[in-house]
Amino acid sequence: MVSIFGLSSSSSTFLLPSTTTFRHFLNSIQKSPSLNYKKPLTVTSLKSPECDPSIPSEVQTFWNWLREDGVVSSKTLAKPGIVPEGLGLIAVRDIARNEVVLEVPKRLWINPDAVSASEIGNLCSGLKPWIQVALFLVREKFREDSPWRIYLDILPEYTNSTIFWSEEELSELQGTQLLSTTEGVKEYVQSEFQKLEAEIILPNEQLFPSPITLDDFFWAFGILRSRAFSRLRGQNLVLIPMADLINHSSKITTEEHAWEVKGAAGLFSWDTLFSLRSPIPVKAGEQVLIQYDINKSNAELALDYGFVDSLESRNAYTLTLEISESDPFFGDKLDIAESNGLGETAYFDIFLDAPLPQAMLPYLRLVALGGTDAFLLETIFSNSIWGHLELPVSRMNEELICRVIRDACKSALSGYHTTIEEDEKLKEAKLDPRLEIAVRVREGEKKVLQYIDGIFKERELELDELEYYQERRLKDLGLCGEQGEIIFWEPK
């Protein structure tokens, strides 16, 4: 799933992948992001769910269920409200910063503990946490007597996440890293389902009376990726009914909104509670909003939640660099990379107008190191080489990394079927939500690629002005002047 751009005098390989978030997805699959799937929304209905006819009956039933269970009451600070793109939590009175908006007892959480306590708990004990919960969700969805029925009835059948897009819709992502990421995620989920079906579902048909399809499993996967919390103590994956109605705002710059506390869980009970607090003051009638994840790129937001942010700083591209096994210095380079927290392959997320990742240039110089510069790989330099790589090594080395990165950027840019100007023109019209996601993601990626190319183009122009290792070494020995001239000492 990567495009290989090749390269160099050292026989190492530079990889510029057509996927930006599959690695992040694999790293975070057991620690899903915080919630929901909708954009920041404005309120169109502020009445209480009990009396507002515009609130779907399923939501009114859900609210009554929570009220009868003692989870919500007339003192609860927020209620479900209809907003242009779905449901949101609406403040019923002014809410102060960090004030508790809602508390949900642990008995209503859906997490691996809930799976373990169910009829399929023993079957799921060896599965990945997210697969356990996904299978549990699908099974409960088909059970008419499920204790989670009222909650499951308000969950969406799909989101605008790219995993649910048609082939025609995906074609608008041509050339993007998001397209190959989406394809990779779908292949991964399908592979996991096939194993699950063969090893758990089919051999235990008595526990799964309703056929479970791949589409059902994708539904559960989409729910988890878009709605699960992960920032609780000891909780890597948890769905919180009611709390997951809260929407995202890019204007909120803190992710502090969820706590695990001990407290009253009803009229006569105590339990561990999920405490949702507002990160900013909210006026009565306004939506209570949170920041889903400050560090996610637009591609990641599109994959997880099915929306993109208007902030330019969300535009990103991932460069993947690799030390080729055919490199004659592979072992030495790998040792150096590993001793500095990297490996044979290194990923660098580059955001628009942000500085390059700190370790990127040293790693680039290491990958390209060869020829007369290879002396730096000798054992005598083992404790100091990374410090040398943080500065230009030689003109040949610096010129090589500039050329390879620029060629890779140009090659990646040629893979899109539209220009930035064409995307800008499309954005002037009201677009279908999925087309808008595609346009913004592909435009953003192209902007970042041009930004990267610009950095290394400017560096190429400065090659004659840079100070390289040999000059620095001569200066340290007092054999080179400030202007780079060699100083010769004549014996007396």
TrEMBL record:
Keywords: Methyltransferase, S-adenosyl-L-methionine, Transferase. InterPro entries: Rubisco_LSMT_MeTrfase_plant (IPR011192), Rubisco_LSMT_subst-bd (IPR015353), Rubisco_LSMT_subst-bd_sf (IPR036464), SET_dom (IPR001214), SET_dom_sf (IPR046341), SET_RBCMT (IPR044431), SETD3_SETD6_MTase (IPR050600). Gene3D superfamilies: Rubisco LSMT, substrate-binding domain (3.90.1420.10), set domain protein methyltransferase, domain 1 (3.90.1410.10). GO terms for cellular component: chloroplast. Substrate binds at R227, R231, D244, W259, Y292, Y305. The keyword Transmembrane does not apply. It comes from the Eukaryota. This is Ribulose-1,5 bisphosphate carboxylase/oxygenase large subunit N-methyltransferase, chloroplastic.
